[in-house]
Sequence to fold (143 residues):
Amino acid sequence: MLEYGLFEELDKNTRAWQLEHRKTKPPLSENEAVALNFYGSYFQQLHPVWKYCFIYLTDRRIFGWNKAFNKILFEVPLVKIQRLKVSKEIYQDEERDELCLILENEEELYLYSSDLGELHGRIYELISKLSTTGLVSRQSSKI
Fold:
């Protein structure tokens, strides 16, 4: 019947209702505050493929979250970030900026968003705040 245009409005409303009621939120710890969230992509050395997800930056960690499956795809505590590096890379034949988080064990996590400047600034600000309160060691404040 949908093929012939019958019940189009009902189908549209049913799908909208289902999406609205399927909304889930990422798991946050008690008193954890979200500083920034956006739809972007990430790349890990262990799994060398860019993957898309919602990326959340909180006052304690950065993580990627798959809304459809209500699943955390990656998670990095801010205290484990040693350095930040923005580099120009080629993706699908176009040059773009990517943010590299260099972690304690020299592992690298690459992030991409349409506003990398804000992401870089917010991460830097949060890590600086942690290092002044003594939550980050001197070594990890090389940002």
Notes: Strands lie at 34-44, 51-58, 61-66, 71-77, 81-91, 94-103, 108-112. The radius of gyration is 19 Å. The first helix runs from residue 8 to 22.
